[in-house]
Amino acid sequence: MKINVVARWVSRKFTGVFEVSRRYAQSMAVRGGDEIQVFGLEDEFTTLDLPLWQPLPVRIYAARGGAFGYAPALADGLIASRSEVVHVHGIWTYAGVAARQCAQRIGTPYMLSPHGMLDPWAVANSGWKKRLARWLYEERVQARAACLHAATEIEYADLRCFGRKNPVCVIPYGVDIPDFTQQGTAPWGDAVPAGAKILLFMGRFHPKKGLLPLLQGWKLWKDNDRARRDDWHLVMMGYDEGGHEQELRNFVGAHELARTVHFIPPQFGERRAGAFFHSHAFILPSFSEGLPTAVLLAWAHGKPVLISQHCNLNFGLQKGAGLPVNPEAGDVARTLRQMAELSDFQLRQMGQTGLELVREHFVWSKVAEEMREVYSWMAGGGCPPACVRKI
Prior knowledge:
Blueprint: E1 2-9, H1 15-31, E2 35-41, H2 46-49, E3 58-61, H3 72-81, E4 85-89, H4 94-106, E5 110-113, H5 120-124, H6 127-144, E6 147-150, H7 153-161, E7 168-170, E8 197-205, H8 211-224, E9 232-240, H9 244-254, E10 261-264, H10 270-277, E11 281-284, H11 293-300, E12 305-307, H12 314-318, E13 322-324, H13 329-340, H14 344-361, H15 364-380, E14 388-389
Parallel strand pairs: 1-2, 1-4, 2-3, 4-5, 5-6, 6-7, 8-9, 8-11, 9-10, 11-12, 12-13
Antiparallel strand pairs: 7-14
């Protein structure tokens, strides 16, 4: 089968979507028997990150129009390639428009993966722009899709609440199990005192991640638990979006938290693995997510997680793989205190539970096989796979 994978960006600029779209495509390529091409738009990280797509061929197009990414050559490329299926990662951009044009011209069915972008919080964020985009093009793009992809039951419900009547496949994202014999070094070096425990955040510095409530809760906890003030350090690993990092740094400076709160740039490959291996827990008190790969990565490295209900992984908390936390200062402080009271053995047991969940539900070979069955149905018809739901 000939499959085209389309993403607004094919680099780290697309954050977690980059990781998911890349590993879906590569995992299907490993199976053999399919011809997979990747289409994306050029950005400042494209040249640096293209090798991460190997062995897949990647076609890059210049774009204009800001975040929308207007690139008529992308639509021409999709049409000329005459694939059997197009899979678009992300919405609200020209990538979906290009897939729709391809469907109109030569009948190629396409799938859309919203990646949490139809979560109510996400839809309300910059709401007037999205209402305009929906009226101009996005409603037609979504309505024409042969299939939509939801990574969780919550995302499936969000799609239906948004008015989508298309078939929807419910397939989670995957994650790679790391090599536990190669744990590398901690990328924060001697910035954190030897013997301190590390609570790690990894991702975009964006308001939706609940990072300001996290810092507010961190201060509240440290102020009220002086005996454990220096036991735990918070490492915030990521990059800025829209100036939010400076807001966070200003808070840390104004409240004298720099002794236990550390900002480090994003890490990749072995250095990212080292960050997970050398931390003791992971936190994501988000206001809005699809299925956050950072949480899956933490579990894959055997780490307990502190996550909000908006991470859509409550079943993992019910299994004992972490603690719930709301993006509100008082609740963050309460959860941090609860975490600090756990023994090292209890933290390891939580992390081991998360690792077992990943092995059971989120390995790439399993989820890629399910996605390939959906592609085959989209291209050839017949009875849909069990993961596909129709109204």
